[in-house]
């Protein structure tokens, strides 16, 4: 009888151990590219799983708000957000930024908004965009919506003012925003430098076909963030694994290949909070 009790206890402990080892977290991505951003993170996720002994499943959503709501509702525990979307997620979904990818040859994870036109376009200076057709990414995008509005405000242009543009439309992704220019559906697009450079690298566009007529100030990097609902021990495991991942194999992220991931914190995004507040005041 005693042996039977010991056997049952051991089986129970073994089962609990297996269940602990099989803990699963779900990761969501904002839809920034036509290429499928979750594919860029496969190698990183695989390495993190091996280091932490945690399972990470990816889920897809159709827009930026859905990525926030997924974490808010507990359907996602980890996310790749754009900066503006992260600010919202930190406010309403208990998100906490912890890392951002650094591209090979660069020392910083920050990036920019580019205003891009076709090579033969008559638009040569940034101010020339007035009275033209402007394509952007999607509402909620940092480098494809928020920062373009900031840059345009600097030259006294507003995307809501019908006297400033013939039309302003959201193409649905950075790639689609650029393709609208190449297909003569828009005169200029405001898009992420990361996506622009990635599409050059994979041959989707050629440098001889386009020109950059304006580059924004540095934009805080799109972060990886986890929900504070995750136990602190697991959050620390995930963060340390991401920061160390480059020592375990090739890694990628938003914009393609990454040399490594650097630590970021919530306060790094205060500059975006200030920008959002300023734009809201200007609208009122």
Topology:
Blueprint: H1 2-21, E1 24-29, H2 37-40, H3 42-52, E2 55-60, H4 64-72, E3 78-80, H5 83-92, E4 95-102, E5 113-118, E6 133-136, H6 142-154, E7 167-170, H7 174-182, E8 188-192, H8 193-201, E9 210-215, E10 224-227, H9 232-244, E11 251-253, E12 256-258, E13 260-263, H10 270-283
Parallel strand pairs: 1-2, 1-3, 6-7, 6-8
Antiparallel strand pairs: 3-10, 4-10, 4-13, 5-8, 5-9, 11-12
Q: How would you describe this structure to a colleague?
A:
There is one protein chain. It is built from ten helices and 13 strands. The strands form three sheets. Strands 2-1-3-10-4-13 form a six-stranded mixed sheet, with helices on both faces. A five-stranded mixed sheet has the order 7-6-8-5-9. A two-stranded antiparallel sheet has the order 11-12. By secondary structure, the chain is an alpha/beta fold. The protein folds into two domains: 22-108 and 220-283, 3-Layer(aba) Sandwich (D-Maltodextrin-Binding Protein, domain 2); 113-215, D-Maltodextrin-Binding Protein, domain 2 (3-Layer(aba) Sandwich), CATH 3.40.190.10. Helix 3 crosses helix 9 (232-244) and helix 4 (64-72) packs parallel to helix 5 (83-92).
